[in-house]
Design brief:
By secondary structure, the chain is an alpha/beta fold. It folds into two domains: 2-208, Class I glutamine amidotransferase (GATase) domain (Rossmann fold), CATH 3.40.50; 222-340, Arc Repressor Mutant, subunit A, CATH 1.10.10.60. 46% of the residues lie in helices and 11% in strands. The protein is built from 15 helices and ten strands. It has helices spanning 14-35, 86-95, 100-108, 119-125, 141-147, 174-185, 188-197, 222-233, 241-247, 252-263, 267-285, 290-296, 302-313, 317-324, 337-340; strands at 2-7, 43-48, 55-56, 62-63, 75-78, 112-116, 133-134, 152-153, 159-162, 165-168. The strands form three sheets. It has a six-stranded mixed beta sheet, with helices on both faces. Strand 3 (55-56) and strand 4 form a beta hairpin. Helix 2 (86-95) crosses helix 4 (119-125), helix 6 (174-185) packs antiparallel against helix 7 and helix 11 crosses helix 14 (317-324). The protein is globular, with a radius of gyration of 23 Å.
Length: 342
């Protein structure tokens, strides 16, 4: 029986903790169904707290923990926690530092170490992700890169495995993380079976379609904030860097420098992200033909926009609409010439 220790804190997301416990218990149930009621369970999944005391979560829920030697577990999981700013994420890693020595010991003995969403900040804080590949919540890209510049962050991926370290993306990506762990510990066939029972898509491999491209890092440059507002209001207008700089009484060079410092981007790239994000919202909430949406976001060349949209979402406009449209009418909007092209 494999031992799985979930290294929680009082900031851990309750649905995440229960989801992890339930997933591996579901595995035990399926195993006994297949092998007979006398079959030994596959997993023993339990919670650990930094001080060995019961967890008291933000919802007021109290959960018992098992204080025994978690460092020798076969799998250690760092779950998601409520932390939304650079300061909170840094504090989360610091408060979890009691786990760092045990994590290093577990890695040395070959245990699997997994983390997802904000839990990856704890794993990175331990130093085990130095010069390793990992993913995390796409929402915290800039914070993660600034805190842990030596981690090879691959936010386009939902799941990244680097040796015995497994990391996964935002929030519900823990289900795919559990599937990956089950595949390594039990086998591909059993992992596929439990994935089907729990309606978890084993082929969901990218976070890109879910990213909100309009979300940028916070900054204090008020003039650049005004430039951002102007670009948002001018999505359909032709872009000219010279005119934009002149409108805000800047040279092109100064505008590019300040924009880069504030947002780590160029004005044109930022505008393209805004245009794609607006197109995504229209695809989600309206029945407008794709060609009309393309015009509304400032493009006349359908082929160019399709390539841009694919680059940012890994889906064609029609595929995106079918996946994310907010209506229960997947046949409302047939594929257009734009989607059939290329």
């Amino acid at each position: 029986m494999k031992q799985i220790a979930v290294l929680a804190t009082n900031s851990s997301i309750s649905s995440d903790l229960f989801g992890l416990l339930d997933f591996f218990e579901y595995c035990n149930v399926l195993w006994r169904y297949q092998q007979g009621e006398q079959a030994a369970p596959l997993f023993h999944c339990y919670l650990v707290s930094p001080d060995g005391k019961p967890l008291i979560l933000k919802q007021g829920v109290t959960l018992d923990v098992q204080p025994h030697n978690w460092q020798s577990a076969d799998v250690l999981i760092l779950p998601a926690a409520y932390a939304y700013s650079r300061a909170q994420l840094s504090t989360l890693a610091h408060q979890s530092s009691v786990y760092f020595a045990g994590l290093a010991q577990a890695q040395a003995q070959g245990s699997l170490i997994a983390a997802h969403c904000t839990g990856t900040f704890i794993l990175a804080g331990s130093g085990l992700l130095e010069h390793k590949s990992a993913t995390s919540s796409w929402f915290f890209k800039d914070v993660f890169q600034s805190l842990y510049p030596n981690v090879h962050l691959q936010l386009n991926k939902l799941l990244v495995q680097d040796g015995n370290l497994l990391t996964a993306g935002a929030t519900t990506a823990f289900m795919n993380l559990c599937l990956a762990l089950t595949e390594r510990l039990v086998g591909e066939q059993f992992a596929r079976q439990i994935g089907k029972i729990m309606l978890t898509d084993p082929n969901r491999s990218s976070q890109i379609p879910y990213m909100d491209l309009s979300v940028g890092q916070p900054h204090t440059d008020l003039l650049i904030a005004q430039v951002q507002k102007h670009l948002l209001k001018s999505l359909a207008e032709p872009f000219a860097l010279e005119a934009l700089a002149a409108q805000f009484h800047l040279t092109k060079r100064t505008l590019l420098r300040r924009f880069k410092a504030a947002l780590n981007d160029t004005p044109l790239n930022y505008l393209q992200r805004l245009r794609v994000e607006h197109a995504k919202r229209l695809l989600e909430t309206t029945n407008l033909p794709v060609e009309q949406i393309v015009l509304q976001v400032g493009y006349e060349d359908m082929s160019s926009f399709r390539k841009l949209f694919l680059n940012y979402t890994e889906l064609s406009p029609s595929q995106y609409r079918q996946k994310f449209m907010l209506q229960d009418d997947p046949d409302c909007c047939p594929a257009t010439s734009l989607d059939k092209a290329g």
